[in-house]
Design brief:
heterodimer, A: mainly beta, 57% strand, B: mainly beta, 0% helix
Chain lengths: 113, 118
């Protein structure tokens, strides 16, 4: 049972445009959500997170939006840069389980020139 | 940021042999490390939580006698796949938690180990 879903395995965006990566979850007990970025041959690195008490968190070019009623979150990257090309994983954590994360399958973002 | 070193990055072994994967936190102490497994086109799945100085906590469906975890020091956790079989072929990745940080942000991942069992 896939509790965190990233339905788009890949996404291609032109440099300078907005990249929108989507994530859906089924477990209403998740209360903390994270996005990780992964380059080839490297481990995932933390990008941005959001608590369920918020609906938006912004950090530079990266913004995460959370819609609790729809059990949906999205990562916006604007403007997109070629260095953003990577696999992006959405992850979720249950209340009280600080580091036990449930991951999505990832979305491969390709930013073209 | 902090660095987690995972070794080896890939390994090919014969069916029935055991394989050990190491996960080291290079510049911080980690009382807790996590082991994940990822099959092709699937998500990272948590296998077990490794606690320094105590027994690991395994997720449901993960055989503790097959996947031996040893967290003997604050900087090293090992995962041994015992009597490996082709169905154990997968991508294994560890993460380590830096204790001083805010919730979840201070998780650092190794680069992963691709295991192929012939």
């Amino acid at each position: 049972d896939q509790q965190v879903k990233q339905n788009s395995p890949s996404l291609s965006v032109q440099e300078g445009r907005i990249s929108i990566l989507n994530c859906d979850y089924t477990n209403s007990m998740f209360d903390y959500f994270l996005w990780y970025k992964k380059y080839p041959a490297e481990g995932p690195t933390f990008l941005i997170s959001i608590s369920s008490i918020k609906d938006k968190n912004e950090d530079g070019r990266f913004t995460v939006f959370l819609n609790k009623s729809a059990k949906h979150l999205s990562l916006h990257i604007v403007p997109s840069q070629p260095g953003d090309s990577a696999v992006y994983f959405c992850a979720a954590a249950l209340t009280g389980t600080a580091s036990k994360l449930t991951f999505g399958t990832g979305t491969r973002l390709q930013v073209t020139l | 940021g902090a660095v987690v070193s995972q070794h080896p990055s890939w390994v090919i072994c014969k069916s029935g042999t055991s394989v050990k994967i190491e996960c080291r936190s290079l510049d911080f102490q980690a009382t807790t490390m996590f082991w994940y497994r990822q099959f092709p086109k699937q998500s990272l799945m948590l296998m077990a939580t490794s606690n320094e100085g105590s027994k690991a906590t395994y997720e449901q469906g993960v055989e503790k006698d097959k996947f031996l975890i040893n967290h003997a020091s604050l900087t090293l956790s090992t995962l041994t796949v015992t009597s490996a079989h082709p169905e154990d072929s997968s991508f294994y990745i560890c993460s380590a938690r830096e204790e001083s940080g805010a919730r979840n942000e201070k998780l650092f991942f190794g680069s992963g180990t691709q295991l192929s069992v012939l």
